[in-house]
Amino acid sequence: MEFRKAFQRGAASCAVMLLAGWTWALAAEPARNEACLTCHEEQGKSLAATIHGKLAGGAPDCESCHGPGQAHVDAGGGKGTIFNPAKGDAAKVVAHCMSCHDEREGRRFFAASTHAAEGLSCASCHGIHSPKKVKEGFLRDGSTTALCLSCHKNMEKSLFERSRHPLREGKMACVSCHDPHGAPTRHMLKAASANDLCFTCHAEKRGPFLFSHSPVTENCMNCHNPHGSSQEQLLVRRESRLCQSCHLEGKHQTIAGQPNDTWNSYRMCTNCHTNIHGSNHPSGYKFLR
Ligand code: HEC
Ligand code: HEC
Ligand code: HEC
Ligand code: HEC
Ligand code: HEC
Ligand code: HEC
Ligand code: HEC
Ligand code: HEC
Ligand code: HEC
Ligand code: HEC
User: Fold this and answer.
1) Ligand 6: which residues within 6 Å by Cβ?
2) Out of 26, 159, 192, 223, which residue is the most buried by the measure of CB atoms under 10 Å away?
3) CA 11 – ligand 4 centroid, Å
4) What are φ and ψ of residue 267, in 5° steps?
5) Within 13 Å and on the Cβ side, how many CA atoms surround 192?
6) Are residues 239 and 149 part of one domain?
7) Cβ neighbours for 79, distance < 8 A, ≥ 6 positions apart
8) Containing domain of residue 267, as a range?
């Protein structure tokens, strides 16, 4: 009993202290931005609507991202007297954001990414004062795929190809396969290699197989286009032509001008060579079973 009372007293005073700390933090929070808010009420509101504005204690204040503001305040506001991430040097924006979102969070490859090399900064994609979807990390665009397509316009048609990944349905997005913050892999892929990326969802293609087809082991993109294709199954070419782009010599050549050729018509090569990704059958060495 005694112990429980002591415990309850302890817990109660702990709660009081926590509450006090919390209200202090709440009270202290706006004070840091006060000078700015007298003139920039709108930016204060938009910031408050995001996760940045809702954090107590370590939350960023105006100066965390805009740098020292005294000169700007002394000048009574105006352009050119304080850092504006929308116009400023990309590396400087990145430095401001990375002072909190450092490499431990998986953005350690940003500096070496194609996006950084192209002069993009964090503010190119994250609209700090113009959030459309707070939950998704207040990206400039509500949907991450729409954000990517706003610059990668030439990729838009891939969403409407005959065969494609389900991006339009929202079941996947560009970020299912790419990390816009950079990655050690080519094309900023979210895996150690292109094939490892495909295996994360198509695990049955990984093998190991008793008989493996070397172009499959080498790179799925020997035969598939991950973004979309006017052929079935994301294939880069119509099937028999695809196979014959490598298999010029063999037991059964198809001959130009003979569309009814047994090896070609209707059947396609994979009607017989069904296990084209590899076979575990003892006599599957020609991928027939
Ligand atoms: C987390 C970083 C961050 C914080 C914190 C922040 N800003 Fe910004 N601010 C930005 C970025 C990035 C831009 C560039 C425009 C954009 O992406 O929304 C910007 C743009 C602005 C602009 C220029 C708007 C324009 O249309 O060019 C003003 C004014 C501004 N911020 C004021 C403030 C004030 C006032 C605060 C504090 C209440 C604040 N900012 C806090 C990142 C921040
Ligand atoms: C006395 C009013 C006033 C105060 C105080 C003030 N600003 Fe401004 N600020 C302005 C005006 C006016 C502009 C120019 C807006 C325009 O022309 O669109 C401006 C512009 C800016 C810009 C854009 C600069 C550019 O070159 O594009 C940023 C960023 C900014 N303010 C941030 C801040 C921050 C952060 C604080 C607090 C440290 C602050 N302001 C305090 C009035 C003020
Ligand atoms: C003073 C520290 C600080 C600065 C500077 C800062 N942030 Fe943040 N930011 C945080 C904290 C803390 C969180 C909430 C915890 C978390 O999710 O990492 C957060 C959350 C975020 C989120 C949402 C994460 C999620 O999981 O939804 C994004 C996106 C983000 N910040 C981007 C930026 C960008 C872009 C900049 C630079 C313009 C920036 N931040 C500057 C501290 C900061
Ligand atoms: C090319 C666009 C782009 C750029 C540039 C970019 N981001 Fe992001 N960021 C995104 C997208 C898209 C997401 C959502 C990722 C997801 O849903 O998997 C995101 C998510 C985040 C998150 C949430 C946590 C996470 O990792 O998923 C943080 C924090 C963040 N970004 C910070 C930054 C910082 C800091 C920079 C600058 C060094 C930056 N971003 C540059 C597009 C970008
Ligand atoms: C503000 C413009 C912009 C936005 C937004 C943007 N990108 Fe990019 N991205 C570029 C530019 C510029 C390049 C370099 C030229 C190219 O390859 O098209 C690039 C290159 C790439 C590359 C090729 C990298 C390489 O090394 O081959 C990938 C992958 C990529 N972006 C994915 C994304 C994804 C995923 C998103 C959405 C989260 C996105 N990008 C959003 C501008 C943008
Ligand atoms: C199923 C996974 C996957 C999805 C989803 C995906 N990509 Fe890719 N992307 C790849 C792979 C794999 C490569 C490398 C292709 C290669 O090696 O030939 C690549 C390459 C790229 C490249 C550089 C080479 C090129 O073709 O220009 C860009 C840019 C790119 N993707 C952008 C995007 C954008 C934008 C989206 C969303 C509309 C997207 N990707 C969706 C897997 C994907
Ligand atoms: C994030 C999960 C994911 C990743 C990563 C992924 N896929 Fe897919 N893939 C899917 C889904 C989901 C479908 C659609 C399945 C369905 O509609 O039944 C699909 C379908 C396919 C199809 C059949 C398309 C059709 O028209 O029927 C092929 C081929 C394919 N993926 C190849 C690849 C290749 C190659 C890679 C690696 C570059 C890859 N996938 C990476 C999830 C993924
Ligand atoms: C030598 C060409 C070739 C290579 C390389 C290749 N594929 Fe395929 N893939 C095909 C053909 C042909 C089809 C359609 C015929 C069929 O149904 O098997 C197909 C169909 C698929 C399908 C949809 C039907 C199914 O079997 O689920 C997926 C998913 C797929 N491939 C994933 C992959 C992955 C992952 C890789 C890399 C590990 C890869 N492919 C490498 C030729 C190839
Ligand atoms: C990118 C080139 C490439 C493509 C495309 C390709 N293959 Fe292959 N294929 C190879 C290589 C390399 C081997 C291994 C040859 C060896 O071991 O002598 C092989 C082996 C084979 C074998 C076993 C041959 C043997 O002698 O044991 C068959 C059967 C086969 N492929 C059928 C196909 C079919 C059917 C397609 C189309 C769906 C196809 N291949 C597409 C490169 C390719
Ligand atoms: C009617 C079924 C059938 C069709 C259709 C077919 N194949 Fe075959 N293929 C076979 C059989 C059976 C063998 C095995 C012969 C053996 O074991 O000696 C074989 C063997 C092969 C070999 C091994 C090479 C060799 O000389 O042994 C290759 C490569 C090959 N086929 C490629 C193709 C390509 C490319 C196509 C499409 C243009 C295709 N096949 C269509 C039944 C077929």
Assistant:
1) 145, 148-149, 152, 155, 165, 167, 172, 174, 176-178, 187, 189, 194, 197, 221, 226-227
2) 223
3) 40
4) -70, -40
5) 2
6) no
7) none
8) 202-289
Query: Is the pLDDT score of 21 beyond 80?
Result: no
Contact 133, 142 (CB under 8 A): yes
Alpha-carbon separation of residue 152 from 161, 167, 181, 182, 244 (angstroms): 16, 15, 16, 16, 33
On the question of pLDDT at 185 being above 50, the answer is yes
pLDDT of residue 86: 87
> What are the distances in angstroms from CA 283 to CA 38, 125, 267, 286?
80, 53, 22, 8
- Give pLDDT, residue 244: 84
Ligand 1 pocket: which of 29, 61, 94, 128 to mutate (most atoms within 8 A of CB): 128
Is the Cβ–Cβ distance between 108 and 79 less than 8 Å? Answer: no
Query: Rounded to an integer, what is the distance from CA 47 to the centroid of its chain?
Result: 24
**180 CA to middle of ligand 4, Å?**
7
> Which of the ligands is closest to the CA of residue 93?
3
Q: Using an 8 Å Cβ cutoff, are 18 and 11 in contact?
A: no
Residue 285, domain member (yes or no): yes
**Is residue 148 assigned to a domain?**
yes
| pLDDT tens by residue, 91-117 | 999 999 998 887 666 777 898 999 999
Q: What percent of the chain shows pLDDT beyond 70? A: 78
Binding site membership of 172 for ligand 7 (Cβ less than 6 Å): yes
pLDDT band at 7 (very low <50, low <70, confident <90, very high): very low
At which of 156, 190, 224 does a domain end? Answer: 190
